[in-house]
Write a structure and sequence with these properties.
Helix content is 37%, strand content 7%. With 149 residues, the chain is mainly α.
C-alpha cells in the first residue's frame, strides 16, 4: 500500500497510437483532397488539403560569385576622407601662405617707407652725385673764465 511514487517521465510518449475517429458515411463528392502531413510525433497523418499548412517555398539559388575585396561604398567613403584631408591640408597651407605674405608685405612696406624718408632727408649732394658747391663751416668756441674780485 505504501508504494513509492513513480518518477516523472522525461518526455511524453502516448500510450496508444493516433487513430482517426470514425467519420460515418462519406460521399465521394463531399470528401475533398486528403494530404498526408507529419504530426507532432513524426508519423504521417491524413488531413484535408484546405486545412494543411502551406508548403514551404523553395528559396532562390544564391549567387556564389566572389565579392570584391573592399566594398565600393567603403571605397567611396575612404576616397572622400583622403580627398577631404588633402583639401583641408591645401586650404590650410594656402591660408598660411596668404598670412605670411601679408606679414611680409607689412614689414616690406615699412622698409620702403624708411628708405623714402631717408632719401628725402638725405642732402642734395649725396643724391645729385657731388655736383653741388662745397661749403666748409668752422665753428670755434672760445671759453674764457673771468674772475671778478
Amino acid at each position: 500500500m505504501n508504494e513509492p511514487p513513480l518518477p516523472a517521465p522525461t518526455h511524453y510518449v502516448p500510450t496508444e497510437p493516433y487513430t482517426l475517429a470514425p467519420a460515418g458515411v462519406e460521399l465521394a463528392a463531399e470528401g475533398g483532397t486528403v494530404v498526408w502531413v507529419p504530426d507532432a510525433y513524426g508519423r504521417m497523418v491524413p488531413m484535408p488539403k484546405h486545412l494543411a499548412p502551406p508548403s514551404m517555398v523553395r528559396p532562390e539559388p544564391r549567387d556564389l560569385a566572389p565579392l570584391p575585396l573592399l566594398d565600393p561604398v567603403a571605397q567611396r567613403f575612404l576616397g572622400a576622407g583622403i580627398g577631404g584631408g588633402a583639401l583641408a591640408a591645401g586650404v590650410g597651407y594656402g591660408v598660411g601662405e596668404v598670412v605670411n605674405a601679408l606679414a611680409g608685405l607689412g614689414s616690406g612696406a615699412l622698409v620702403w617707407i624708411a628708405l623714402a624718408v631717408l632719401a628725402w632727408r638725405a642732402p642734395v649732394r649725396a643724391v645729385a652725385g657731388a655736383r653741388g658747391s662745397t661749403v666748409n663751416i668752422r665753428k670755434a668756441v672760445i671759453k674764457r673764465s673771468h674772475f671778478h674780485a
